[in-house]
Design a protein that fits this description.
The chain folds into two domains: 2-72 and 219-235, GNAT acetyltransferase-like (Aminopeptidase), CATH 3.40.630; 78-195, Gcn5-related N-acetyltransferase (GNAT) (Aminopeptidase). 35% of the residues lie in helices and 33% in strands. The protein has helices spanning 2-6, 37-42, 53-63, 84-91, 105-112, 127-133, 175-190, 201-210, 224-235, and strands at residues 12-16, 20-25, 28-33, 47-50, 67-76, 98-102, 136-141, 145-156, 159-166, 193-195, 197-198, 213-223.
Length: 236
């Protein structure tokens, strides 16, 4: 996600002096370099990712109880070591009545209208931006009702950051694993690295099912007021 901002593909980058920077993309603000209170104040996304203890202290000093710490999980995997046969089996393990489809123009707009699915395409400015740069698959029921999806939350040179979502009433059916496996296979076929940064232990478990390994847990901060601010901007 940081590379997507640094390379100018999406998001925005704010620098202060020669040693402090904020990279903002979707629901994330990454803070790096010398800790800077001004950049913490300018962070407008609900998830803040600090680079080191100094940034953590500044976040807690500036935002106080508004910033709630939680643990995310960075993963890793050498592209050549994915078990493609296993991934193919997961894509074929859908229950009867469900099917996998690429995300096209019509589905792009459908997903944006669904609260549970908005993050699958929401980081791109418009449909053309997603279709030109993005990549994704959905599981549908009855041919046209999307119930799960896996897509590129962010894109940079040679890689994507994976986003996976399932409609709450269709969870625990293997749908996320199927569309996630399909997206990983597509990335491998295109020479792209499918990056996965797990939001919680459930996301980590799904990543491990697809073949990823835990790299390290790390501390991020949830700022509810930033989530509400961003939601209001999208409505207005």
């Amino acid at each position: 996600m940081v590379q997507a901002c640094l390379q100018g593909h999406m998001g925005r980058l704010i620098c202060r002096g020669e040693g402090s920077a904020l990279a903002s993309i979707g629901d994330f603000c990454f803070l790096a370099g010398a800790p800077c209170a001004e950049l913490v104040e300018r962070a407008d996304a609900p998830i803040l990712v600090p680079d080191g203890e100094g940034w953590r202290r500044i976040i807690e000093e500036v935002l106080g109880r508004e910033a709630v710490p939680f643990t995310r999980y960075a993963t890793r995997h050498a592209p050549e070591r994915f078990d493609c046969d296993r991934l193919i089996c997961l894509t074929k393990a859908l229950p009867q009545g469900f099917a996998l489809h690429p995300i096209g123009r019509e589905m792009y707009f459908t997903l944006l209208e669904e609260e549970w699915a908005r993050d699958l395409c929401g980081c791109f400015g418009d449909a053309s931006g997603f279709l030109e740069q993005g990549l994704g698959f959905v599981v549908t029921l009855g041919g046209n009702l999307p119930v799960a999806g896996a897509s590129s939350y962010a894109v940079c040179d040679g890689a994507i950051e994976i986003e996976i979502d399932t409609r709450p009433d269709f969870r625990r059916l293997g749908l996320a694993a199927a569309c996630g496996a399909r997206l990983v296979l597509e990335c491998l076929g295109r020479g792209l690295y499918p990056g996965w940064d797990a939001h919680n232990e459930q996301s980590l478990a799904l990543a491990e099912k697809l073949g990823y390994q835990l790299d390290r847990p790390y501390t991020a901060y949830w700022v509810a007021k930033n989530r509400e601010h961003r939601r209001n901007l999208s409505v207005n």
